[in-house]
Design brief:
25-stranded mixed β-sheet, 38 strands, 6% helix, mainly beta
Amino acid sequence: MKNLVISFLILTVLFLSFSCRKDFSTIPSTGNLTFSTDTVFLDTVFSTISTSTYTLKVYNNSSDDIDIPSINLGRSDSYYRLNVDGLPGTSFQNITLRAKDSLYIFIEGTLNYSSQNPLYTDSIVFDSGNKLQNVKLVTLVQDTHFIYVHNETDLDTIVPYFISGAESRKIHYLSDDEITIFNDNSNDKSIVIYGYCGVPSNKTLTIAANKKIHFHKNSALVIEKDASLIINGTLSEKVILEGDRLEPEFSEISGQWDAIWLRSGSKSNIINHLSSRNSSYGIVCDSISTNNSTPTLTIKNTELYNNSNIGLLANQTNIIGENVVIGNSRTASFTIINGGTYDFNHITLANYWSESIRSGSALQISNINTNEELKNPVFILNARFTNTIIDGNTNKELYLEKNETDTFDYFFQNCMIKHNGTDEDALVDFTDTNHYLNILKNADADYLDSSLNKFYIGKNSELIDQADPKKANRTPLDIIETNRTLAPDIGAYQHIVFPEEE
């Protein structure tokens, strides 16, 4: 009993001593805070669009708990917002920071563009008077045109069949004034599309060289029946399509927007010098136009990169392609379904997707009926690929599938095809000269950097001077306008000497 009493007294004394400690008393800040950075760059944003959230870490390296009298934004009317110690606002008083501890400040903003000063600056000010410290905030703001679905007036809906589980979405049809914006060379504003925006029947959307078009999440540009899309980029002034997140960390994130969708019956679509990246589907091209002899799409000098599903999806359509590079995609670079007519020359299909497990081949061709609603369908396939690379990081980058009744006519000439293993599929028999001629199997392309979609081929490439010269004369310049007629290489690029690494 005596020992129990003594133990109780000892515990009581210890408790009272701890409760009387001075650990939680503070002293005023001496102005010796340190920071994770002296300037927070909130990167580039569009006017009126919120930035990402950025983090500043504040350190108290002293042995004392301190009290920061005030933390404020420098501007009284700042476009920035803060969150300090879990509290949102723009001004904070008496913030306690423990000894040898740190404090997180989260920063974001919604900024308005100023043509006089597009670089918006402010600062986070700590304390005041002689103890003042500050951290600069900097954001570059771009002016832009916004085109978006008007929920109260846009009543038409559309279902993107190619996106798994997609529900109907409202669509905004471009007015004549909005169509004009895309072809206005005198205006260098970017264009940001929110939602599904469409070109109505009997209208043509022409996109001028050097235009930059950004898409918000779940957004697409749709070309309707009897409408046309004309993209007029040049080598030095490509048309750029990408997501609307401009921060560097989003530069290689796939699936930021849905697609360019050329719907059934759209006609005479022409794409030249386009660079598209980070979508779900780069381009979806549906059934043939009313004039079967005219291609639904003619695509040249175009790059489709980093798609979370497929780079080019062709659905029973008619496409002519030259100098096209379709790179890394989670499923396939190029998929043909339900047959159609295709003629491609000097194409690079190289799929080295590494973000997750791939579920397809670089080139997939099928005339199996995937549309059960069609009555008495005919799925004839006529496909020609010459001087083409079909390559990637799986064992078999060419997949062919035919139905039992319709014509399945295909021919590969002077192509490099990656295809390992002893496949017994009669459709992939490289000795069958009715379908394959001068095939390089599993050759080393010697890419500059396949992980970054840089599919230039180097001086050690086995594809050098292996293209068919007659077919090369049809496309005499490569995608960067190098003459290829004398000794043509397979693919969209003539070989180059890679720069030496520093």
